[in-house]
User: Fold this.
Amino acid sequence: MKKIFLNLGKQPLANSFLSSIKKNEFFYNLSVSFDTTNFLVSVTNPVNPKKQYTDQYAHRASESRTMRDAFKNTAKKLKKRFAPKLVMEIGSNDGVFIKNFQKKSVIAVEPCKNLANLTKSKYKTYPNFWNKSLAKKIYNKNKKADLIFSANTISHIPNIKETLEAIESSLSNNGVLVIEDPSLKSVIKTNSYDQFYDEHVYVFSALAISEITKKFKLRLFDAEEVENHGGSIRYFICKEDAKYKKTQKLIKIIKNEKKNRLDKYKTFLDFSKRVKKSKKDLIRLLNRLKKDNKKIISYGATYKSTTVFNYCNIGTKYLDYVTDTTLNKQGKFTPGKHIPIISPEKGFNSSVHYAFLGAWNFKREILNKEKEFIKKGGKFITHVPVVKIL
Ligand code: JHZ
Assistant:
């Protein structure tokens, strides 16, 4: 049974960076539920993917050094462990993962045409949504895949049933599905409620993945906690009768999730109380800084900050602008709150007193890069795990 535990109010699409401020912007109500039967945490009423994954899609996975390195290492490890002959990636974005494989051994699936265009000249790229009919088309033309990889994508597809069925039919007998998505344990522990937005339809736990895969002739046999995006889990899944044995690592992760009570509704109700407090604390801090005439900006026009700004009602009253390195976000306005986005070269300088870490998941990379700013007295603000000045 699905039970709502969090209401983050009216939200725009996290990806809808605006070229000009328009009046009829699309908003939906963002509430999050816990399913007491399979432990799945999901957005209660998901948005139609056709509205989200358009040819205007903004996020480029290779925009941070941290992620470029992470994908390179992951590819290396997977090659060594599974020696796949045919690799398929679902949600290949700008090709940051597949570029670590030989051209001929890779199939890319990417519904956003602007992104698919970036990889199609080098790799076999299907510019389509992942579903059963696409899967059939692909495995009829090619072979079945020995490795299906998907980072930050399976959690984005509302129809998990069809997604997993299509994957099961596309895997070779001992093929492996490796998916990586933000971990529920990290979200709850670090109070990162901004991991909930329209695209993050699910925030998975090993408990939930284990339950749900069982229903589709698949089996979770291994998992690994990784630092990516503020704490993610990489899941290793195979067909139910494949050769892989359940690992101790997985058993430990599931045990730990139970210890953290990720199978209990009460855990999420408590989380929801902490989220309300985080909102109050952030507004209080920003009001205090504004009273002292401080210039505050935000660092990284993340999808996550769309949730924070709209839930906490943070607009240009508090933040002068947002800086972001992504070219196609610059010159635009943030969804819902319409804060201008500019390049760091233009906006990240000594006139800034405080920078809210929209990209808190890259805290280490950013603090390292911005030593000069800190040396000159500039400060960062974060809301993860609690609202504070760093
Ligand atoms: P980042 C996106 O979410 C959307 P977002 C998506 N739904 C998802 O699941 C995750 O990614 C994985 C900028 N930046 O990665 C670049 C700087 O300006 O946290 C990015 O625009 N300077 C697919 O948007 C943004 O910040 C820097 O030094 O929440 C980071 O976005 C660095 C490091 C980044 O994902």
